Amino acid sequence: MPPISSPERPEQRRGQRLFFVALLFGVLLNFPLLAVFDHGGRVGGVPVLYLYVLLAWATLVLLTGWLVKAK
């Protein structure tokens, strides 16, 4: 009979974390949050919406890379 409180395998935890990152990506790039940044403002000549999408994407790519490399 296997123990009741066995520690999770690292691959399983990594999968759960990557799933969380995918959900976070879906939430950050969904309509209600995009609508907040969809106005005529500019930062350094770049529309705020474009800057938000680029920064959200880059952050999530870096987070995914860090999670995949972490042991």
List the helices and strands and how they pair.
Elements: H1 10-28, H2 31-37, E1 42-43, E2 46-47, H3 48-69
Antiparallel strand pairs: 1-2
Helix pairs in contact: 1-3
Specify the biggest β-sheet: 2 strands, antiparallel
What spatial order of strands do you see in the largest sheet? 1-2
Overall number of domains:
1
- Average pLDDT over all residues: 88
Radius of gyration, in Å, reads: 18 Å
Question: Strand-residue fraction?
Answer: 5-15%
Query: Quick one: how many beta strands?
Result: 2
Distance between the first and last residues' Cα: 29 Å
Shape: elongated
DSSP helical segment count: 3
Poorly predicted runs are none
One letter per element, helices H and strands E, the order comes to HHEEH
Overall helicity:
55-70%
Computed structural class: mainly alpha
Describe what this molecule looks like in 3D:
- Keywords: Membrane, Transmembrane, Transmembrane helix.
- This is DUF3311 domain-containing protein.
- The chain crosses the membrane at residues 18-37, 49-68.
- The structure is a single chain.
- With 71 residues, the protein is mainly α.
- It has one domain (11-69).
- Helix content is 68%, strand content 6%.
- The protein has helices at 10-28, 31-37, 48-69; strands at residues 42-43, 46-47.
- It has a two-stranded antiparallel ribbon.
- Strand 1 and strand 2 (46-47) form a beta hairpin.
- Helix 1 (10-28) packs antiparallel against helix 3.
